[in-house]
Amino acid sequence: MLACHVQKQGNLLTVVDAAKQLGFGQDTVQYIEKAVLGTTTDAGFAAPLVQQDTYKGDFLELLRNATIFDKLQGYRTVPFNIKINGQATGGTASWVGEGAKKPLTNPTFDSVEIKEHKLAAITVYTQELLRRSDPAVDQLVLNDLIAASKTLIDETFLGTQAQTDVTPAGILNGVVAVAASGETAEAIEADLLKLIETFVEANLSTDGAYFLMSETRAMRIALLRDALGNTYFNGMNFAGAARSLLAIPVITSQSVGDRIELVKMSEILVAQDGGVDVAYSDQATLTDGATTHNLWQENKFAIRVEKFITWAKRRPIAAAYIQYT
Predict the structure, then answer these.
(1) Cα Rg for the chain, rounded, in angstroms?
(2) Is the separation of the CB atoms in 105 and 90 below 8 Å?
(3) Which of 201, 249, 308, 320 is such that its CA lies 20 to 30 A from the CA of 286?
(4) Locate the Phage capsid-like C-terminal domain: which residues (predicted)?
């Protein structure tokens, strides 16, 4: 029997209806009604005819924390592998009475060392994947490695670790945290003033400084109201426009965590070689723990990203922070 579907006055005509209209007997109609339904999920019938396709109009990229370092401006650019001498404390003068001994005083000096640090990452995949992947796997991997590099820079830059031969020091290294006194508007304001006082006591202004905080904390601050229902901290928008707190620009990222940091960028020395160096190879032999990849022999391909960058504080106080629990 010829089974076909036709549209009639907007209604779908089933095979059973067609059989009835064509005058087939009741036995035939019942036979059609009992027929097995063929679906795209039936492995023994129509499933092999319908293949799942990949939608090429979009790609679900990994959601990462917003990067901070690239948004900070005003740092001092310096070369790699240098030492910068500076004065730590100054001499003092005193009033001296007639015939009295003049006091002795000496300034103290120290130095800041700029080393050479680099970060790198390599990903290996097969050439079959390179040829057949859609979206193109090489561009996806490259973008992911660059994003991972930026994330590592942020985590290291905002950290408390000391400098080593492998890793730069975090800008909070050696800095004593201001313990948060609360999360009310008054408590936050008092704690922010303590951060600013830390700068003032070190003879630093807040010109060119930034407040760094998580997006979550920025939203909480934006929702604080005074007794009249007005926004307590002007400039702290809930979302959208650029934020400022006490007239100091605010940059947000979840990577900051449970802290509010105050950073003066003119007190940060940065050495870096432009952007990210990208290299490709299908000839090298790579070792990953106990696994060895011979790219030529195994028809594999590798992408490497590498960036030379380091930084150091000009003085011990270039940043201060409030620690929340």
Answers:
(1) 33
(2) no
(3) 308
(4) 50-292
Q: Is the peptide bond before 135 cis (omega within 30 degrees of 0)?
A: yes
Show the tokens assigned to 74: 């005003």
- The CA distance from 238 to 232, in Å, is 12
What is the DSSP annotation of 13-29? EPHHHHHHHTT--HHHH
Rounded Cα distance between 325 and 322, Å, is 10
Indicate the helix (H) or strand (E) that contains 140.
Answer: helix 137-157
Residue 265 CA to residue 228 CA, distance in Å, equals 36
Cβ atoms of 103 and 118 closer than 8 Å:
no
pLDDT of residue 109: 82
Band the pLDDT of 25: cuts 50, 70, 90: confident
Provide the 10 A C-beta neighbour count for residue 276: 17
Amino acid present at 265: M
Place of tokens 């290299």: 279
* Residue 49 scores a pLDDT above 60: no
Which pTM value belongs to this model?
0.76
Indicate the helix (H) or strand (E) that contains 287.
Answer: strand 285-288
The one-letter code for the residue type at 95 is W
Q: Cβ–Cβ contacts within 10 Å for residue 230, how many?
A: 8
- Per-chain mean pLDDT for the chain: 85
Residue 285's SS3 state is strand
CA distance 196 to 105: 30
